[in-house]
From TrEMBL:
Signal peptide: none annotated. It comes from the Bacteria. Pfam families: Tautomerase_2 (PF14552). InterPro entries: Tauto_MSAD, Tautomerase/MIF_sf. This is 4-oxalocrotonate tautomerase.
Length: 128
């Protein structure tokens, strides 16, 4: 599950394209299938979205929630791919992008009526 936060006027017009870029990055680095897309966009009023100085109104936070198991180098590659792909596709500078990866044990995930550690038919690998 990926949650994306940004200022409404900046985020709403690019939602579809940003979702495509994020998914492409997840596919490239993690081997996710195209149909494994769980993106939640949280457009916010500028008065409710505080961010560090030196950033523009394009400042965007991407929070990636995933089952633990990926190698450090894999997670770093994903972060770098996101910076690069977002900048080239949408022109948002890496200084205006913040990426947070949150990992939880598989037993803390619930989907399709079971917990993540019970699932045997994932179409992608977690240990990459």
């Amino acid at each position: 599950m990926i949650v994306i936060y940004g200022i409404r006027e900046q985020l709403t017009p690019i939602t579809g394209k940003l979702s495509d870029v994020i998914q492409r990055s997840m596919t490239q680095v993690l081997g996710f299938p195209e149909d494994k897309r769980a993106h939640r966009f949280m457009p916010m009023d500028k008065t409710d979205f505080f961010y560090p100085s030196g950033r523009s109104d394009a400042y965007t936070v991407i929070e990636i929630n995933m089952m633990e198991g990926r190698q450090v180098d894999t997670k770093k590659a994903l972060i770098k791919a996101l910076f690069s792909n977002i900048e080239s596709a949408l022109g948002i500078s890496p200084v205006d992008i913040e990426i947070i990866i949150k990992e939880q044990p598989a037993h803390c995930w619930g989907f399709r009526g079971m917990t993540g550690d019970e699932v045997k038919d994932l179409t992608y690998k977690v240990k990459v």
